Amino acid sequence: MMVVGSVCALVHGAASPLMLLVYGMMTNTFVDYEREVQELKDPNKTCNNNTIYWVNDTVYETDENTTLYCGVDIEAQMTLFAYYYVGIGFGVLIVSYFQIAFWVTAAAKQTQRIRKTYFRKVMRMEIGWFDCNSVGELNTRISDDINKINSAIADQVSIFIERISTFVFGFMVGFIGGWKLTLVVIAVSPLIGIGAGLMAMAVARLTGRELKAYAKAGAVADEVLSSIRTV
Predict the structure, then answer these.
(1) 3-state SS, residue 47
(2) Residue 84 has what pLDDT?
(3) Using an 8 Å Cβ cutoff, are 118 and 142 in contact?
């Protein structure tokens, strides 16, 4: 399930650059159609064999010594792009469902196994061990701490794989479409990575402190409630 979910996450991540590629093709179609309309407003120009000609049958060339294509069927092209978007959307709907479902199910099974193993180990401890460890702390560990593990290995892993896939395929599309601009983006990417790494380290450190604080607080609350009768 984790392997299939990872593959679905890779496909899902590649969908965003693919949509940008389709969007770029659609934008180019709009530009080409508008240039054709503007050029053919001149009565001395005509469209012949998908190329703009002068009325004297000489090929029209721009200032850059390039020819202009014409005969763009804008309605057919937009219909084709609409099919592309529908196909990508339907594919994302399927793979994203299996991506999340498989990883969440696998995480639930793993956390259940962790809880059983944890409880089995606790039950085999000697009585002196319980004098040094509060029952409330154990309850907090078996619930809140393992829930943190579940949150980390459930949809978060699949989302991480999806973002990595988007990152890789995005640069691939970038190099294919415009390698100069992509090199400019790569120049500042290390700064973004360093910032994200520092933030992740801070979050991990604070999460550890949070778990310890909640374990102590849970122990105190459990002992207070369980000792009301004695008090």
Answers:
(1) strand
(2) 94
(3) yes
Is the CATH number of domain 2-226 3.10.450.50? no
For residue 150, give both structure tokens: 């579940």
- In single-letter form, the type of residue at position 83 comes to Y
**Residue 143 to residues 26, 112, 214, Cα–Cα distance (Å):** 51, 11, 11
Cα 220 from chain centroid?
41
List the one residue out of 68, 74, 58 whose CA is nearest residue 36: 68
Structure tokens at 174: 């970038």
Domain extent listing, the chain = 2-226
User: Using an 8 Å Cβ cutoff, are 70 and 51 in contact?
Assistant: yes
Residue type, 166: T
Write out the two tokens for 3.
């392997």
Mean pLDDT by 10 residues, the chain (231 residues): 93 91 90 83 76 73 71 87 94 94 92 87 82 72 79 86 91 86 85 89 87 79 70 64
- Please, are residues 85 and 22 in contact by the beta-carbon 8 Å criterion? yes
For every residue of the chain, DSSP letters joined together read -HHHHHHHHHHHHHHHHHHHHHHHHHHHHHHHHHHHHHHTTSTTEEEETTEEEETTSPBPB-TTS-B-B----HHHHHHHHHHHHHHHHHHHHHHHHHHHHHHHHHHHHHHHHHHHHHHHHHHTS-HHHHHHS-HHHHHHIIIIIHHHHHHHHTHHHHHHHHHHHHHHHHHHHHHHHHHHHHHHHHHHHHHHHHHHHHHHHHHHHHHHHHHHHHHHHHHHHHHHHHTTTT-
